[in-house]
Amino acid sequence: MKKEKIKIISLAVISIFLITSIPVQAFSNDLYQNSSLDDLFDITINKDTDWYYKPNNYAELVSWYQALEVNFSDYLEVFKANDLYGTGQAAGGYDLYYVRITNESTGFHKPEILMLGSPHGDETAGTIGLYWFADWLMRMAYTDEPCSDYSKEWLRWLIDNREIYIGISQNPYGFDHGPQRYDGNGWDLNREADHDGPGSPTGGIWGSENGKTLRKFVDNHTVRIGSDMHAGVRCLIYPWASTNLDIYGTSQVSGYTNQGAPPDFYFYDASTLRLGAYMGNCCGDGVFNEYNVQTVAEYLSYSAYGAIMNWAYAADVEQNPAEDQYVEDETFGNYPGTGALWVSPEMSWTKNVPEYEMGNDTTDGWGTEIRRLVLHQADLAQPYVRWQDGTVENHYTVQPGNPVSFKWQVNGSVVVDHTSMQWGVDPNPISSYDFETSDYDENEGNYVGGTGWDGALDGDTSGVIYCENITINTPGEYYFVAKAQVDQMYADVLEPERYGDDSYLRLVKERTNESYYEVLDGTDGVEEIIGQTWWYSPVIHITVGSMLPYASYTWEDADGTGPGTIIHFDASTSTAENITLYEWDWTSDGFYDYSSPDPITSYDYGDDSAYDCTLRITDNISQTDTFTDTVQANLNIDVNQSAFDRGFPIRHTWDGDWGAAQNFTATVNTLTKCEIYLRKFGTPEFNLTVELRKDHPEGTLLDTLSFTPEEILSSWQWLTLDFDDIEIESEENLFIVLPPAPSGVSTSFGFEWGYAFGDQYQPGSFWFTRDGGELWRDLPTRYEFTFITFGN
């Protein structure tokens, strides 16, 4: 390893010498075609350990994302953006695949960011690193793999509250051929955008299908932050690239003066300097600081006409009339989807980086820097206040006079102007409160400070945590919230006499202007952005005094699978300060049939029907709570699996309709019912159909059931399938089938059936279809859907 490091350092020194003797041109021009270092040195990579490998071609890269979609379908979707927007295939016959990462069960109206695989096909670090980010994020958030650098809870929070889009490659032809800078037409795909463009060589403004697709995507989304990935130099650059070169902006953070400064120069400067410091220097190509975190006009020695970043930032000329002279809106129309904080990372001096520099989960490499880039930018998309470890739990009970601890951070911002807590007896302490703490306002008027990202450097932070210990002496129910105001200095733009008084950035307008309102009828329906200058944490409820009662019970058939019908009940799982009475309504008809101070009892229902049974508990100060569950005796459980909170979707997508099935072999004479573990996500447009078939997922139909979306919970549940009683033949192969969504469905909301890894049930298999049922595939040893069957 020492010899290899010496060779790499030597090459880096030679490269730096050559670069310093030639004008910096990597963002604009094809300075030279870099060969892989693997071609220059015989370097052996240890393939026995996990690594961030490079795909052989675009198709393989897409297939990697599609495999992630199968394993993490609740959170990641791959779709053909060119089909969605009717823009056709790119030169060379390529479909343009995009990826969406979000918790689909919470909808699609969250702050969006877009990370675009490089428009120059030979600049590969970002294109490949984005896949490894997606893979890392899914595994760190939703598996038991250790994650030492980040809280799994925060990663899940980010997925719950953001939509992260990835354009897998803006130039798949260039990625596959050579790789090379230009697309199949010989065009530069970072020169065709409609802001002071086109440049050269292109087929004109939006000449390529790649560009048309990008334009359609952006105008159908309210993207707050974006990037198109590059390589060939080492910098983080932002507008302007070819306009307003006579306007200079001086950083309020570093003191460095930039040429060609945009109206939002101060926000660009502060946030991108922090981003660069956080990304670090993982491969030895140099740190990011004020000397390479700059406007394009300041860092590069030429103008980049028609670059994506300027268009994505400023091409909405109705909002930004000063840009009308640079945008051909008379021909191509206005661009209401623009207004994004767009930064173009030039990752590495080497364009087509070698595989051994990609790193892995714990070894720094280009994968590490891309990971930090996306996490930082996704966080910045919208301010938020989040409780930290050490904060009292929600619904906690404390005795009068005992202090309660609260700790919070303010993120999604660059500077915290004000933050404090307020609370009272109203369940909505945001609008109605009785008390408040002192205001933390030490950073008011500054350009940085007070956030959880303070001290960002090489993947670490030393962020500010705000703390309050609050003591309440009067018993009662109290509700607490932390609030913050952020980034108010950035409402003022640079050179308002040239640009106008308002920020071009929707994320700045959202957090600094209470009157700001934006509405866009896009791909996922109506998107709204409503300005607000205060941001609030989740509300925490505290009981001061006696604990609120909580009723609960468990039950079991006292006779097992025999003929008896006695049910044992155990309510000792109920909690309160002092429970004095347990009351039982065996059939939930409103009349309590039995009461006792003892939590354990039994009841003989006399038959094997299902009954709802309600428990009511009462404590020593007459507070009550109830709990209802369904009980049933005398059923033989045939197949019984554990439940796992992981699911496969039944839904419509732009590239197919998904369905699922599980086959099993019954060992009873009569199959009476089944249960499956599932939930819905979002608001499905179609009913859930469940079929019982034999021999194949499309085999003989034995029974079918239908459930409306209102009958299915958003949380995981066991859904009872009360099929007609069916006499079972020996070794009969049966299938529980959830058919694909019907035609006419327009959204990707649907249902998901829980599954587990491995061969949990050997006589059967996990089956799925992704093309509406044209082809069913089984995975007999890799997965198993979760189900229970009953019979006699």
What do these coordinates show?
There is one protein chain. The protein is α+β, with helices and mostly antiparallel strands. The protein folds into 4 domains: 2-380, Zn peptidases (Aminopeptidase, 3-Layer(aba) Sandwich); 384-543, Immunoglobulins (Immunoglobulin-like); 546-632, Sandwich (Immunoglobulin-like), CATH 2.60.40.10; 636-791, Sandwich (Jelly Rolls), CATH 2.60.120. The relative contact order is 0.09. Strands 30, 31, 35, 38, 39, 41, 44 and 45 form an 8-stranded antiparallel beta sheet that branches. The protein has a 6-stranded mixed beta sheet with strand order 1-2-4-3-5-10, sandwiched between helices. Strands 13, 15, 16, 18, 21 and 22 form a 6-stranded mixed beta sheet that branches. The protein is globular. The protein starts with a helix and ends with a strand.
Task: Please write out the topology.
Blueprint: H1 2-20, H2 37-40, H3 58-71, E1 76-80, H4 81-85, E2 97-101, E3 112-116, H5 125-142, H6 152-161, E4 163-167, H7 172-176, H8 209-219, E5 223-228, E6 235-238, E7 248-250, E8 257-259, H9 265-279, E9 293-295, H10 296-299, H11 308-314, H12 329-332, E10 341-342, E11 344-346, H13 366-380, E12 384-387, E13 396-398, E14 403-411, E15 416-424, E16 435-436, E17 466-471, E18 476-486, H14 496-499, H15 506-512, E19 517-522, E20 525-530, E21 535-536, E22 540-544, E23 554-557, E24 566-570, E25 579-585, E26 594-596, E27 600-604, E28 610-619, E29 624-632, E30 636-640, E31 647-650, E32 652-653, E33 656-657, E34 659-665, E35 670-681, E36 688-694, E37 700-707, E38 717-721, E39 726-727, E40 733-738, E41 750-757, E42 766-769, E43 777-779, E44 783-785, E45 787-791
Parallel strand pairs: 3-4, 3-5, 5-10, 6-9, 13-22
Antiparallel strand pairs: 1-2, 2-4, 6-11, 7-8, 12-14, 14-17, 15-16, 15-18, 18-21, 18-22, 19-20, 23-24, 24-27, 25-26, 25-28, 28-29, 30-45, 31-41, 32-33, 34-40, 34-42, 35-38, 35-39, 35-41, 35-45, 36-37, 36-40, 41-44, 42-43
